[in-house]
Amino acid sequence: MTLFETVFSGNDAVYGLTEGAVNAAIEQHGADKAVSFPNTAYCLPCYYAVTGVKVKTLGELKEALGVVKTLMTREMRLNDVFMSGVATALCAEFIEVLKYIDGAEPYTEPCYGHLADAVIRELGVPLVTGDIPGVAVILGSAPTKEEAVALVKSYQAQGILVTLVGGVIDQVAEAGMKTGANLRVIPLGKDVTSVIHVVSVALRAALIFGNVTPGDAANLMKYTFERVPAFVNAFAPLDDVIVACGAGAIALGFPVITNQEGVSTVPKSLILQPDVSKFNATSLEARDIKIKITNIDIPVAFASAFEGEIIRRGDMQVEFDGSRVDCAELVQSAEATEIEDHKITVIGPEADEMELGSKNSIAYVVKVAGKNMQSDFEPVIERKFHNYINCIEGVYHTGQRDMQRIRISKDAFHAGFRLKHIGEVLYASVKNEFDAVVDKCEVVIYTDPAECKRIRHEVAVPTFNKRDDRLKSLTDESVDVYYSCILCQAFSPSHVCVVTPERLGLCGAVSWLDAKATNELDPNGPCQVITKEKCIDERIGEYEDVNEAVRKFSQGALEEVSLYSIMEKPMTSCGCFECICGIEPFSNGVVITNREYAGMTPLGMTFPELASMTGGGVQTPGFMGHGKHFIGSKKFMKAEGGIERIVWMPKELKEFVAERLNQTAKELYGIDNFTDMVGDETIATDPEELVAFLTEKGHPALGLDPMM
Amino acid sequence: MSSFRLTTVEEFEAATDRLLETGAKVGADSWQMRVKNQTPHCKFGEEGICCRICSMGPCRITKKAPRGICGCDAHGIAGRNFLRFTAGGAATHSDHGREICHTLHTVAPDGNYKVKDAEKLIRIAKEWGVETEGRDIYELAHEMSELALMEYGKPFGVQRWLKRAPEHTQKLWHDAEIEPRAIDREVSTAMHMTHMGNSSKPEALVRQALRSGMSDGWGGSMCGTEFSDVMFGTPKPVDTEANLGVMKEDQVNIIVHGHDPSLSEMICEYADDPEMVALAKTMGANGINVAGVCCTSNEVAMRRGVPMAGNFLQQENVVLTGACEAIVVDVQCIFPALGPLSKCFHTKFITTSPIAQMPDSDFIRFNAETAGENAKKIVRTAVENFANRKQELVHIPQLKQKATVGYSVEAIVKTLDGVTNSQVDVLGTTKPLLECITSGVLRGAVAMVGCNNPRVRPDYAHIELMKKLIKNDIIVILSGCSAQAAARAGLMDKRAKDLCGAGLKRVCELADIPPVLHMGSCVDISRMMVLASELSKDSGLPISKLPVVGCAPEWMSEKAVSIGNYVVATGIDTFLGVDPQVSGSSEVTYWLTEGVRKWVEAAYTVEKDIEKLGDAMIARIEEKRAALGI
What we know:
CATH architecture of the largest domain in chain A: 3-Layer(aba) Sandwich
Number of helices of chain B: 25
Strand order of the largest sheet of chain B: 6-5-4-7-8-9
Number of helices of chain A: 21
Oligomer: heterodimer
Number of domains of chain A: 4
Cofactor (chain B): [4Fe-4S] cluster
Number of strands of chain B: 16
Keywords (chain B): 4Fe-4S, Iron, Iron-sulfur, Metal-binding, Nickel, Oxidoreductase
Strand content of chain B: 5-15%
Largest interface: A-B, 28 and 32 residues
InterPro entries (chain B): CO_DH_a-bundle, CODH, HCP/CODH, Prismane-like_a/b-sand, Prismane-like_sf
Protein name (chain B): Carbon monoxide dehydrogenase
CATH topology of the largest domain in chain A: Rossmann fold
EC number (chain B): 1.2.7.4
Radius of gyration of chain A: 33 Å
């Protein structure tokens, strides 16, 4: 018999039983006898969800059975199979509801039978937040009770809600395992039809949370397919009825994993896994459920409290230093097939094979794979390594790329911390934080000096160069979209950053690629796509689409912004900007100061004073908050003439931006060593002295039109 | 989501009618008018019983005159004509493949052409028993190019690619004596056999027709596809757009048309060249837009996501928009009509190949060695022509649809890997697809290919059949102009899943694919042969037993007949919507629709009623399922 025929046969059998049972009940109680499940507003919830009709009496139940029959078409198409599966489920609901006639209590400890609406409302929040990452439906008897318990416990440990149907209930009871809704293990009932009580939960969830109209079967099934992370584990032997129920589950989007040999398998839907100990991993992969790793298996603590911890030389067991020996840290995307998830390899000596106090090479390559992974995300993930490794108690990390420096404290070492644990931390953190794009992750840690040299020079550096080239090639013109960023609206509710390749967020932390990745990782999150199709004014960088977005994301507080002007409709500032620039009327230029600089500026105001009049998400023509990297951009106040307006910066900031700023000045105006013409606090903090200096240097701003 | 709907054939036709109004204004000719002039067609020709092989004739067969002057009857004449038709197609595809092999010989690290998919080159080299360890990839490419070129004229042995087929198929070929020897030889043999005074026995002529076809699909075409992938990259899923609306009013529109990607790849390169873009700006254009027509379009869409303006019978339409600065052609399926038509507009009709030279065109000869310069000159010519555009004639029909294309065999396998479960499945096989078919979730697959033909309402048969098939949970793989019909209608938009039966819809959702998969140009039908072989090997079933059929509902060219012959010879039942011009001979008809089944376990079905054609394919698929007990 083909799979389809099996489903049809199972469906016919259940229908026959149901018809008999309903007729017998009518004979016994009369057609007007009330039927209902306790504590639900959705009379016969499954039937109501699918058809939109409430059934309250046996007579109506009989009519409903006629409707169910119309679902049982017999073309050899999956639609017929799905509908027969649904019909089987509805029949099961009918059989189950008959058990409740006259307020009977058909289920006794430990079985629950029908679950009240209140239970669903309680489950709603943890399901949405991912605290309950999935719902397992285990059906039948495991080969042994030990396997049954192990499987149930494995799900329980992951926070997955487990429902049990059939023999498995006795198996876990015999093993002495406690069950109950509070433990997230709910035995439903021993008849196969009791599986409907979990289906009923899923369908009511669609009505309660998904606002699906009862009777809109197509959207109902779309909701459960896309949003209810349930799956079925059905133990052999599978009879036709179970297969028919399985068709119903698959119709709703719930894959079935079974150990029944000879079953006709269907990718991601009906999977044969002979090894019960692998049911868990197989099921999670089939339903795309990713478990948050809350407990990283390392011998020391892992928490942000340790982020600022410094390891002094005397306390240090070993160190790794990219400025002296070959080091590298790298994220590499790879094919899923090339990666073994959670594999951590150390190539070369471990920490306990290194001399106390020694300086060593290290290169760790984190290979990631995922359907939604893009190579542009590699550096975004990589930049988090600093943060991850620093959160380890007794481990300290600075720098990036091939210039990182790591120290492991004696205490951590003696607690058993080894290099492989860095792998554990990277693995768990990457998987947790980037679960939207990373499906599989493997870490290779090299300490063998020759290998480190190879990885650094042949793998890492070429990758870094390629990325830098890519960044350089990204211009405001070369991309199709920009991104909004409202990360800081918690502080500044009307502020919206428009992030473009040449204009990073004013906090300095969100580049265009970061925003892109943030958007991919969380499509409803703080960074949204802004199209740039309707240009209003190319000179100041004003777009109709950008204005629309800003209006929307500022809740109407902001009407229009330009991307490239500080005089006309400048972008607003929140409060977390790295720098402020403000016009300096005597020189026709602008002065920039940064948060770290505590001193006076030629404007007669310090950073905090300037900040107080620039922040808060309001437009202040003539003043603008921005990121440090924006200073070297060709788009920096392009509308007013660009970077040649810069007349003063704190010395430290000037040195920080010198290379890029000088390069931009060379490219835009043919000026060499532009920063030499820019004043700083060692030259002047008084406007007149500054102008004198600028005149002496022949600063181009002096010859430009006044800005006001 | 709700905004998605297919573009209808009626909308296609309304757009065409509007363009023809422009045509009428400028006094342009059109295929629609020429069809009228040519109708009714010569009945003897249509039935395949006019013989003009020697100058004693032409002879034509009637009841009163049942034999030609030499004594050849209708069966011999129809058979010869069919074989010659096949040989023409095989020669055409294979010569295209040869050009690709020659281009492969020019690859260099700093040359116009490079090896983009080294891994594939190494894979093929290993298949051919060529040493790959420690070798320079370019040196290897040159050796492979020479070996491939030898396949065209090897004195002994049969085609190397045959080894890719399942053993069962190879045995059938051997036993039927249709294993192709040297590629060119099968064309020569065909010409020889059909010369005056040689074969007139239908069985022999049909047998050689299969063999000539085989030399194309399992010879020249496969060379073309495989080495194009090596040089230009093996296609993987990429998003693009299709229909005339991809042409841009404010940009320089360059239309690439023909078949050989060597030219179009270079045009695409130089259209992105900053110097050319800057030049376009000085001419008042906002940029340079390359779009394609016919199979060249398929090639660059598959590899670069270059939009597809239209298929075969749209080639005049792109000029009629008045916004086409240049229509740049390489080889095959190019209407000579484009010459006079382009003269009615500012359009430059640029021919590039010695193979396809036409009056009223600018001939800019394209060589692999000087490809960069040639392409740059062509792009420059187009850009400079922007200034000559007659604004009053510009009308671009605003019809276009999104499409996800690029499903090479490699890409399909990779997509299938995406629905495996790493706890139980192996990767890199077609097994997930087989599981879908075996379980019944998918009923089967149809490979739909081929051209447009005014004998059939253009695109209508393609689109209606596809709609019917996907509704019945039959996945459709496409190439050539059939693929473009699908893309223009919107069937390659992933949202088209909602038009499928529940089974195919679920497959589309889980695998994140559109319900019809674009496998490439007409040369790329060789990819379909590889896919069928993989399905056979992974399932352990002969190809002919798989619930898979081929279909060419609107075919017109000699190439299509050659393709049909190798598809049938590979064991795939093939359904035609246009008569193969042999109906004047009951015997040739018998051999094609039944007789060859003895040799290759498959045959042709001809059905001009599109509705019935669809039903017949579904019925054949269900028969094959029943025979397997699935």
